[in-house]
Amino acid sequence: MSRFAYVNGRFVRHGDAVVHIEDRGYQLADGVYEVWAIFDGKLADAEGHFARLWRSLDSLRIAHPMGQAALTCVLREAIRRNMVRDGLVYLQVTRGVARRDHAFPNPAVPPSVVVTAKSTDRALAERKAEQGGAVVSVPENRWGRCDIKSIGLLPNALAKQAARERGAIEAWFVDDLGLVTEGASSNAWIIDAEGHLRTRDTNANILRGVTRSTLFEVIRDAGLPINEKPFTIAEAQSAREAFITGAGTLVLPIVSIDGTKVGDGSPGPVATRLRRLYIERARAKAI
């Protein structure tokens, strides 16, 4: 099946999709992105992703390329053309094409917009969740505005590569105080020795995860105790359970941290339950 991408106003074959060499995203990482999970051909956690997109664009003073209704149509068309039932849709917005200069173009240029969509194997994802994954720790070396979903992801890419080379699926950044901030592409969670769910608060230098926010609703409905409190790698290693959240991983149990088993080294019951409850809610509310 041929794949299709949306590039600046039109759909083209994926293999023919290009942007100009002086697009500021390509030259300066001057842009933002969002990723929606797709359930049954629909956008999961749609409003949360749109809200974060507008906030990221406004923080970088990039013009909104179109309204939310029009953008929703583009995303849905990308999903339809690529015949995605379960998967991911990716959106990238940059400041646009202009002669290379660090300062913003004057006068302003239209922002560039790219959308792609791809299928994922949910059955395979469930098998991986049943096995759980490993994480490794890396020093926090990112910029001071990780709350913006910027396309400047080189530290994240290097962290992911470090994880892959050590047989892990994710890397957790650790700040100068020895506290976990978040993963390279996910939020980090534990269930501590007292049975409390813990994750870093969003006042810290972390991304305001949309899957994270939806899971908070799930946790409240389930009546589970939760604490937005940071933790160390040692605390995570001695926790009852650990897991990560994100549009790509959903809720994924973690069974090893820096080579040390978490609990008995298998996915815990709470993380497994939360994955099921999150998927049920996301699927029911997808648009």
UniProtKB/TrEMBL annotation:
GO terms for molecular function: L-isoleucine-2-oxoglutarate transaminase activity; L-leucine-2-oxoglutarate transaminase activity; L-valine-2-oxoglutarate transaminase activity. InterPro entries: Aminotrans_IV (IPR001544), Aminotransferase-like (IPR036038), BCAT-like_C (IPR043132), BCAT-like_N (IPR043131), Class-IV_PLP-Dep_Aminotrnsfr (IPR050571). GO terms for cellular component: cytosol. Pathway: Amino-acid biosynthesis; L-leucine biosynthesis; L-leucine from 3-methyl-2-oxobutanoate: step 4/4; Amino-acid biosynthesis; L-valine biosynthesis; L-valine from pyruvate: step 4/4; Amino-acid biosynthesis; L-isoleucine biosynthesis; L-isoleucine from 2-oxobutanoate: step 4/4. Its EC number is 2.6.1.42. Its cofactor is pyridoxal 5'-phosphate. It holds the Pfam family Aminotran_4. It catalyses: L-isoleucine + 2-oxoglutarate = (S)-3-methyl-2-oxopentanoate + L-glutamate; L-valine + 2-oxoglutarate = 3-methyl-2-oxobutanoate + L-glutamate; L-leucine + 2-oxoglutarate = 4-methyl-2-oxopentanoate + L-glutamate. Keywords: Amino-acid biosynthesis, Aminotransferase, Branched-chain amino acid biosynthesis, Pyridoxal phosphate, Transferase. One of its GO terms (biological process) is branched-chain amino acid biosynthetic process. It comes from the Bacteria. Belongs to the class-IV pyridoxal-phosphate-dependent aminotransferase family. Acts on leucine, isoleucine and valine. This is Probable branched-chain-amino-acid aminotransferase. The lineage of its organism: Bacteria, Pseudomonadati, Pseudomonadota, Alphaproteobacteria, Caulobacterales.
